[in-house]
Amino acid sequence: MLGILARTMVKACMVKPSSLVKPVSVTRVTGRYLAHQEGLPKLPVPPLQQTCEHYLAALTPIVDPEELDHTCQLLEEFQKSGGVGERLQKGLEQRAKKSENWLSDWWLQTAYLDYRMPVVVHSSPGVVLPRMEFSDRQGQMSETLPVEYLGGKPLCMNQYYQVLSSCRIPGTKRDSVVNYARDKRPPTHITVVHNFQFFVLDVYNSDGTPLTVDQIYIQLEKIWNSSLQTNKEPIGILTSHHRNSWGKAYNNLIKDKTNKESVRAIQKSIFTVCLDAPMPRASDDMYRTRAGVQMLHGGGSRWNSGNRWFDKTLQFIIGEDGTCGLIYEHAPAEGPPIVSLIDHVVEYMKSTDMVRTPMVPLRMPQKLRFNITPEIKKDIEEAKQNMNIMVHDLDVKVNVFSHFGKDFPKSQKMSPDAFIQVALQLAYYRIYKRCCPTYESASLRMFRLGRTDTIRSASIDSANFVKAMDDPAKHNTEKVALLAKAIKAHRAYTDMAIRGQAIDRHLLGLKLQAIEDLAALPEIFMDTSYAVALHFNLSTSQVPAKTDCVMCFGPVVPDGYGVCYNPMDTHINFAVSAFNSCQDTNAARLAQALEDALLDLKTLLEQTPKAKL
Ligand code: COA
After folding, report:
1. For labelling alongside 444, which of 21, 198, 206, 370 has CA 20 to 30 A away?
2. Where residue 510 falls among pLDDT bands split at 50, 70, 90?
3. Pairing relation of β-strands 189-194 and 272-275?
4. What pLDDT is stored for residue 29 in this prediction?
């Protein structure tokens, strides 16, 4: 049964990277892709004074007034004519002139490859797809990838070319990413893992035609039947370790030629399919949450955490009970391209076209061998322990908010995303009686090689609203006016961010420029306010999809939350995460507070006569 879903997923994703854009000749594809990319504007460097002003505004709701005064003085000094700020700004502008994107390499290094925490929980998002009724459906893929738009502007499509045939490689100090998709002969195999055993499955025939769904099924069945033993070493769990430890273990692992070849086959493969062992049963109520943790970390060494290669950019996960989803390694891409791929897969699975299978016997998929020395065995044991600690520490709640979706805020002429973010500010304020630094990802894909910037959802206006909302001395009309202002401010920040004018990446750029150019860091980067501003107690992201799915990720600070949501027309899928080791946080509590806040906002708007808005 399990293979039925796996084979359709495999077939739906079985796109040679070069055929992601209409399958004409490679040169035309490349030409069209390049023309599109080169037509995109370059990421701007925002004006220094603008960033300093917006930075002070962003600090206002989250730092003490004395701290704010101090930072204000530091900023004045920093941006004065002929000062350090001006020098760094010029350096950044020079960098922008000389490179395709002044930020992208720095961002890849600092946000991902230099980050030494395990990719599991701390970086890689999981996606829960709708639970499947397994059935025997087949279809044809379109092999077209139209350029995407945001606010009417074409987006950079580069990330799509980074997610297939790519893999993160651990290092003892810093990681790297390899991508084989643009090789002269791009890989033609995927890897499949079942009961911790990895296999190479060729998904193209020698004449270049893709295997049919039936052929893939036969191959998956062979893999399944030849990996029934459950006592194998979970070699893949090594990839869940702290990056320095994994880097060291990796160098040791690939000293052996067989191991090196096996690892290379996984790294080169188009993607990985994880055929998971059954997980503990969950009530209908808890099903989504259980599926969320299965996608994020696999449930621990007893369950499916060893049934992964966490460095692999894209891993589809299929359980025996209809649970399915994926996990992706974040360095090469953000959620939206991954989710577009999912929308394609899900659409594909709905199609009923039958593909006739030619009766050519296929070779048994090759099993990847690993020679496990006592040292490797010790590394596996350490990684298992570390993984189990992470599993116990992660607190997840996946919910469907079923009272309304984008429809309600739209009916009020409000941005749905801003509405949800303001509700989240209210939920947090109600629990903690304070506003906290909040990160929402904003796409920079309007620019060539653009990744993300930060929308700072805690604003002066959102703070004014959340303080007023439960104040009995305030009238509803005033609350509604403050809510409308907070929502407008959020939407304005969003517009500023997607146009490349937000503050976070600019400040990071100035700091990295200072590290390159100066003997000492300017004081604004050593300031308490700066540390507070970067301590994101709420790390959030909207990852919209046509498919009724939800992405989940872990918090970015020990006392924080990760909140991801997919607003559909009439409901909203949410995933909230926190750490159990922090006594002050609780995923279910925040999820409940968010539901209450959303409902209260609706009631407030409905109870206040329109004429007074
Ligand atoms: N009145 C009526 N409708 C409105 C409205 C208003 N005042 N404001 C917005 N809408 C509509 C929009 O037209 C849109 O309509 P659609 O559903 O037909 O597309 C819809 O409401 C949603 O708009 P909004 O809620 O404002 O959000 P958005 O789609 O502009 O998205 C971001 C905002 C920040 C999520 C988006 O800009 C972005 O950057 N996305 C990428 C985030 C990312 O990379 N995440 C992954 C990290 S791993």
Report:
1. 21
2. very high
3. parallel
4. 47
Catalytic residue among 122, 241, 330, 490: 330
Measured in degrees and rounded to the nearest 5, phi and psi for residue 573 equal -90, 130
Whole-number pLDDT of residue 307? 98
CATH 3.30.559.70 fits 2-8+117-144+167-366, yes or no: yes
| 392 in active site | no
Coil, helix or strand at residue 292: helix
Domain ranges, ordered by start, for the chain:
2-8+117-144+167-366, 44-100+402-613
Protein residue closest via CA to atom 16 of ligand 1? 406
Ligand 1 atom closest to the Cα of residue 413 is: 1
In whole angstroms, give the CA distance from residue 434 to residue 428: 8
Is pLDDT above 90 for 346? no
Please state, in angstroms and rounded to a whole number, the distance separating the CA atoms of residues 127 and 116.
23
Q: 44-100+402-613, what's its fold?
A: Chloramphenicol Acetyltransferase (3.30.559)
Closest residue by Cα to atom 26, ligand 1, is 415
Residue 139 structure tokens? 């279809």
Distance 105 CA to ligand 1 centre (A): 27
Mutate-to-test residue for ligand 1 from 415, 441, 485, highest number of ligand atoms within 8 A of CB = 415
Within 6 Å (CB) of ligand 1, which residues are found?
150, 334-336, 406, 410, 413-417, 441-443, 452, 494, 498, 541-543
Higher pLDDT, 283 or 440: 440
**Tens of pLDDT, residues 516-573:** 998 899 999 999 999 999 999 999 999 999 999 999 999 999 999 999 999 999 999 9
Structure token pair of residue 146? 């139209």
Position in ligand 1 atom list of the atom nearest CA 420? 25
* Contact criterion met (CB below 8 Å) for 164 and 452: no
Global pTM? 0.93
Helix axes 476-498, 460-469, angle to 10 degrees: 150
